[in-house]
Specification:
The chain is an alpha/beta fold and about 290 residues long. The protein contains nine helices and ten strands.
Length: about 290
């Protein structure tokens, strides 16, 4: 394990989306969010019907998404767990229908090995685990033995209680150390680093100032050889900065985060409004001098 974080992106170093090799570019890949839930903080209930979810997913593809992240369990602060059977009922038909219509890479947002296994069989390429392989001990051997990538996210606590009283002495140092330890765990199970994606978990067991400090320090959070994912779309700390209680009206905050991730060499940006972010990156890339 390399104890030091990588300070910047290495353009020549690829990472993996399942079996696909991806060369790092100037802008992050755009991961579109498909929430098949009744209670997600931003768009809960809008795509709960599988037909509506499919239409939304295909619209995100048309809008320029590089990959899609499909989830059937809300992880907003205070959220209650969803039974495995219900999560399967919500997620698997949607994944199957998307895969039947497009070959875009697919991620399943789940902490459960049973859901991840069914999702991989339905065509998913990535398992996005907000627990960082803590919630279900069966998930690590599953992803280690599959031809998939895995997102390991930092979260202090669990969704139901994570925002009760989060505390850090040095949030950047602590989050980086935790991510490096999870990389060591995944490597010990046989996963190559190019299949391991890391997410600092903005909004997951973080105070307002912690989220801002992590965004400022994104290059310091890297672990060599692993892709970096950021998910800040419409989150509460952006609402606080903008004095905007409505998550749907925090688009300016999302663009600011997108600019920071571009400058910091982030590999994947997870967003709700794919079209706005894609258009923003088109212009930003055109006006930014080549390095």
């Amino acid at each position: 394990m390399d104890p030091k974080p990588a300070s910047s992106r290495a353009p020549e170093t690829p990472f993996r989306i399942g079996t696909r090799t991806v060369m790092r570019g100037r802008a992050p890949l755009v991961m579109g969010i498909v929430n098949v839930t009744p209670d997600s903080f931003s768009d809960g209930g809008r795509w709960l019907d599988s037909g509506a979810a499919l239409r939304h997913a295909l619209q995100l593809v048309d809008d320029g998404a590089d990959l899609l992240d499909v989830g059937g369990e809300s992880t907003r602060p205070g959220a209650e767990p969803v039974p495995v059977a219900e999560e399967l009922r919500r997620v698997i038909p949607v994944l199957q229908q998307i895969r039947a219509r497009t070959q875009i890479p697919l991620s399943v947002d789940t902490t459960k090995a049973a859901v991840a296994r069914a999702a991989l069989e339905a065509g998913a390429d990535v398992v996005n685990d907000v627990s960082g392989l803590r919630a279900d001990p069966a998930l690590l051997p599953l992803v280690a033995g599959a031809a998939c990538s895995v997102v390991l996210m930092h979260m202090q606590g669990e969704p139901h209680t994570m925002q009760a009283a989060p505390h850090y002495e040095d949030v950047v140092r602590e989050v980086h150390a935790w991510l490096a330890a999870r990389v060591a765990l995944a490597e010990g199970a046989g996963m190559a680093r190019e299949r391991i994606w890391l997410d600092p978990g903005l909004g997951f067991g973080k105070r307002h100032e912690d989220n801002l400090e992590l965004l400022r320090a994104l290059p310091e959070l890297r672990v060599a050889g692993c892709a970096m994912v950021v998910g800040a779309s419409r989150k509460r700390f952006l609402g606080t900065l903008l004095d905007e209680p409505d998550p749907m009206r925090r688009g300016e905050g999302d663009l600011a985060v997108a600019a920071r991730c571009y400058a910091a060499g982030t590999d994947v940006l997870r967003v709700h409004d794919v079209r706005a972010i894609r258009r923003f990156y088109t212009v930003l890339g055109a006006v930014t001098p080549a390095s």
